[in-house]
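Researcher: Go.
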Amino acid sequence: MLEKLFHLQESGTTVRREVVAGCTTFMTLSYIIFVQPAVMAAAGMDAGAVMAATCIASALAMVLMAFLANYPIALAPGMGQNFYFAFTVCLALGISWQQALGAVFIAGVFFVLVSFVGLREKVMNVLPVSLRNAIPAGIGLLIALVGLEWAGIIVDHPVTHVTLGDMQSAPVLLSLFGLGAIAILFALNVRGAILIGILASTIVGLLTGMVAFQGIVADPPSIAPTFFQLQIPNIFAEPNLIAIIFIFIFLDLFDTVGTLIGVSQQAGLMVDGKLPRARQALFSDAVATSAGALLGTSTVTSYIESASGISAGGRTGLTNIVTAVLMLLALFFSPLIMMVGAGYPVGENVVLYPVIAPALIIVGSLMLKNVIHIDWDDVTESIPAFLTLLMMPLTFSITEGIAFGFISYSLLKLISGQGRQVHWLIHLFAVLFVARYIWLVG
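Model: Structure:
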């Protein structure tokens, strides 16, 4: 049956190899089970319900990818999209998390409708290489900044705005321990380095009294607080919502396509530079995003961590089935998940997350590798890329980074006489972002 479903022999793999690969993928991406509830709780969502929604939506997405596309490419709520959801849309712009879920749902439905007409592939070819690689790197810097703040390593300052925290405080020391542990495990090429580092930090936190033991196994948390709680927003009543939906679409578009290309190249799945069954893979991603919004979690997207399972030999959708089963089993370990993601109060309205923070810093560092593909010798390419990189962490907004990148790219190309070499959509987006600053900001 497995051979008929997944064509194992044709793909040069075995059941045992696929099972090992699925376990490996789970080990490397399971940090999202700890991180997602903590991030979304900042937007006012119930952490237990978010955990349940994350596990169920991820498992559903992986099963769809397995049966529709037969690829070992795992999916889960995307790092970067979840921060945009919580910190930009909900906290900075004041949009309710119910409306934010509605915006994610609209983005997912949009992708479902266009998945079979090749729009994603076409748009991917429009975006300049410099911006395509600067955007994930900028998101990585933003994620790392959040991790440094959650660790207490970076704190606010009345004059310089940011400064070094108390390096002798207990939460900072625990965060540094976790950061060092994960970095060393990565240097030693240990599978599941992030997960092992998180668990090691949890043990140290328990021994030092910084983490309160809440148990390990329990009934799955209720998904009721977020299940079907989304609200389809009135985009005419809140002008920012149009930009928000666009950014959700934009982030999922390039994150998914970029991940599919990168992982598929590593796995040897590309044929003549193209990915067979790409539309089925993109359709799986789109359905998962809409389903995730209905369940109560942010944008579900393809995960670059799938590369770890592929390195372990995964070549078919059976790898995804194994990872999906493990995600569902994680539901029964909710006390452990909540214990790891619990905050540590250090003052009035100040809560640190010393166990989770190191994972964010490391994930941020991994997202910076794209900068090597930017042409730093051409200022019409490098300056827009630099502004994209810089503005995301400094404004604490993915939107502003993308806006500065598009505007500066269009402007410099036009002034240098290269405007016609740029696709008209880039110029259009630049004008729309300028209009946003004139009429919508402030």
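Model: The two ends are 60 Å apart (CA to CA).
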